[in-house]
Design goal:
The structure is a homodimer. By secondary structure, chain A is mostly beta strands. Chain A is 4% helix and 47% strand. In chain A, strands 2, 3, 4, 5, 6, 7 and 8 form a seven-stranded antiparallel β-sheet that branches.
Chain lengths: 119, 119
């Protein structure tokens, strides 16, 4: 039960699209991730997912529209909704989602990260 | 499923110690609150609680120590742990906790807020 400095924790995130865990509560995890480029379209069948942008900005492409999320903004993507994260330049993002959530959703591919590291 | 600007949402938080809801996911809620002064010591028997400071700073007094949480920092208070939030000057805080969480924990007093408003 120590306080967590979000910016300092980002120093330990060395890869893009590779979320790291910084906290856990009520079966949910707080994760940090750095985004750059495009991530595959995917959905999470059982988990809602929160993206909060800490630095930079990102886009999330939904099937019917695209949202731009900038520093100080957040969005909740409901379970079952296809989405594709895109960052034209580096974006630092805090995620809040159940500890069961896999970054690529129902798809397993080379970007899938299992057994996430705590930082 | 619209993006949420945290700073703009704070414009709708007009009272101290009165959390407002800005999002819900997986049975959890994201809340915003403004703190000034001292809040009664309390605990939540069944809910872990996350405090993320968006502006200013706050202290959380535990029974054995005090933590200072400043802008860009967060802390997770586990269920069952007594804590007392204190803000010497205005502190803007984001809370993440189950939708069942009552601000004063197991105590009902004049600061208890039931049926929180969405903003």
């Amino acid at each position: 039960m120590n306080k967590i400095n979000i910016s300092e924790k980002f120093d330990h995130v060395l890869e893009y699209w590779s979320p790291k865990i910084i906290g856990e509560l009520n079966g949910q995890q707080v994760k940090l991730a750095k985004f750059l480029g495009e991530f595959p379209r995917h959905k999470h069948d059982n988990e809602d997912e929160l993206f909060m942008v800490i630095s930079g900005k990102m886009e999330i492409e939904f099937d019917d529209r695209t949202e731009t999320i900038a520093k100080g903004e957040m969005i909740i993507v409901p379970k079952g909704v296809y989405h594709r994260p895109i960052a034209e330049s580096e974006c630092l993002c805090l995620l809040f989602e159940p500890s069961t959530t896999i970054n690529t959703g129902g798809e397993q591919n080379k970007l899938t990260k299992n057994n996430l590291e705590w930082i």
